[in-house]
């Protein structure tokens, strides 16, 4: 699954506050595309609240300041920046899709009031623990691949979760996954971890809806000579 944003209707900005008028705004999902603008701060916009989609990929952002002026956005992408924290999104109560991949984020935070969130992409950060998702019960897609997670935390309350990507972490066991993972899961990736005991896959037997699982490049697979 790709974490996608529509690029059909965009407003292009060369620098802060300087418009290049190429506006064909979709009245349903007006998009502001500020990718690859060398931005160090999120620019303030007088008409910020008209946008539903905000793209800030591939900039030089270290903080998410001014983001709360875009209170009505439903999709936000901030991948490939220099972010260490994600707390700045906490007031974006309309948010449904959030992409913070390829940053330096250390912990999951600031999502308590984002009850509409369905897609969360935190791929390729420095997250060590799956936490602070208790109120995000509408999540359907959670990408935590390529982080530093050592164990699977209890996310059984995410009863709408269909896709969980945990490949490229440091997970060494699947103990209590029979209690910790929601039965709604359809896709689970555990490739490139440190799982040593192939028998622990049995803890996933309760996942009746699971139709795709990947555990390739784990010690348990390499020792058995199998690829799953």
TrEMBL record:
Q: Which GO terms describe its cellular component?
A: cilium
What's a Pfam family this protein contains?
A: LRR_9
Main location group: other
Claim: Ligase is one of the keywords in the record? no
What PROSITE patterns does the record point to? LRR
Give the record's keywords alphabetically. Answer: Cell projection, Cilium, Leucine-rich repeat, Repeat
Q: Which SUPFAM superfamilies match?
A: L domain-like
> What role does it play?
Cilium-specific protein required for cilia structures.
Recorded protein name is Dynein axonemal assembly factor 1 homolog
Q: List the source organism.
A: Anopheles sinensis (Mosquito)
Q: What is the lineage of its organism?
A: Eukaryota, Metazoa, Ecdysozoa, Arthropoda, Hexapoda
């Amino acid at each position: 699954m790709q974490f996608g944003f529509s690029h059909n209707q965009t407003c292009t900005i060369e620098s802060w506050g300087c418009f290049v008028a190429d506006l064909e705004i979709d009245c349903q999902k007006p998009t502001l595309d500020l990718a690859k603008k060398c931005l160090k701060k999120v620019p303030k916009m007088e008409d910020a609240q008209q946008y539903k989609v905000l793209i800030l990929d591939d900039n030089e952002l270290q903080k998410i300041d001014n983001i709360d002026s875009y209170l009505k956005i439903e999709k936000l992408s901030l991948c490939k920046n220099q972010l260490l924290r994600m707390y700045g999104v906490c007031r974006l109560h309309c948010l449904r899709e959030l992409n913070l991949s390829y940053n330096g984020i250390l912990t999951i935070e600031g999502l308590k009031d984002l009850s509409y969130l369905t897609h969360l992409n935190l791929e390729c950060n420095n997250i060590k623990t799956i936490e602070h998702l208790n109120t995000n019960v509408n999540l359907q897609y959670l990408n935590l691949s390529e982080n530093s997670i050592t164990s699977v935390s209890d996310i059984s309350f995410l009863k709408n979760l269909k896709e969980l990507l945990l490949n490229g972490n440091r997970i060494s066991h699947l103990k209590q996954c029979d209690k910790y993972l929601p039965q709604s899961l359809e896709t689970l990736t555990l490739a490139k971890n440190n799982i040593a005991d192939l028998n622990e896959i049995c803890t996933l037997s309760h996942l009746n809806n699971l139709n795709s699982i990947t555990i390739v490049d784990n010690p348990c697979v390499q020792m058995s000579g199998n690829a799953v």
